[in-house]
Amino acid sequence: MPAIRSTLVRRGIAAAVALPLLALAACSYGSEAKDDTKAKVAAGSKKIDGLDSVKIGYFGNLTHATALVGNQKGFFQKELGATEAKYQTFNAGPSEIEALNSGSIDIGWIGPSPAINGFTKSNGKNLRIIGGSASGGVKFVVNPKKIKSLKDVKGKKIATPQLGNTQDVAFLNWIADQGWKVDAQSGKGDVSVVRTDNKITPDAYKSGSIDGAWVPEPTASKLVAEGGKVLLDESTLWPDKKFVITNIIVRQSFLKEHPKAVEAVLKASVETNKWINANSDEAKAAANKQLESDSGKALPANVLDPAWKSIQITNDPLAATLNTEAEHAVKAGLLEKPDLTGIYDLTLLNKVLKGAGESTVDDAGLGVK
Description:
The chain has about 375 residues and is α/β, with parallel strands linked by helices. It has helices spanning about 5-10, 65-70, 75-80, 95-100, 110-120, 165-175, 200-205, 220-225, 250-255, 260-280, 280-295, 300-310, 320-330, 345-355, and strands at about 35, 55-60, 85-90, 105-110, 125-135, 140, 155-160, 190-195, 210-215, 230-235, 245-250, 310-315. Helix 8 (about 220-225) crosses helix 12, helix 10 packs across helix 11 and helix 10 crosses helix 14. The longest helix has 20 residues, at about 260-280.
């Protein structure tokens, strides 16, 4: 099992002893969970696998649009029949991984970093990635008065959401590609990397305590609404401008014991993604309505519209890019080289895709052998 460097543990990066590194999801906003059991069971339907419910977790964030829209429009409940779709919303990766491991949820939408961490910390025994959900939605936004070009970033204070999270690793890798030096753990060097919770990053920007931020949506668009400028869209750094930002994971024991239920959720996910891509404006409104239901606050149009445009909804888990993200963490000194063989099981997803007349997807050699 890859060992996480002890300095990160001492810093208590994930606040959970069992999940110290790479534990925050790409769009983390804290660590509290919210239980939502409002799902309506269709009359006359039958239970799947004899289950009373399937417990689904996701973040209240636009990069989890499949889960947001699937909940709001009832796609999951439709496929599960008399088995109730129960939802929990999370603000950070550690709590969702813990919920998965404990059985509090069965299936979850989550970012690549906690998926990698949850898999490696359990010696590959607790979770599987069973599908993709979203690509993109990450931008480098700066104060245009202080930073006018990429070379101006040197010497500036740039925020990332958390030491070791997906955006932090991406920014550290970008810094290294410029030939600059930064100590990954302290954030000190040619660029000052300031780890800042996404929910307070806009205030930090307004106060002038940071000069920019490498952040996910909707934080990036919130900064733009405050006068920031997009200096770089992370998608431009990836082949075909695609990289994984949200995966679908499942508890391995649940996958083994209830494959029909997992297949139903995946079928609903594929149907939701098809509907989102065919009805962008209506889907955007549905996602925002579910955000409001979950958090009590909807996103304003000047944040919602540009954020939505930068996110690609996809069934493809973009497995090769997850492996590359792990390599970037190793390169930054935040992770010892992991063995990710078996992190994917796309069997049921490809079955669903074939049935829907869609193209199947690849696990980049990281599937179950």
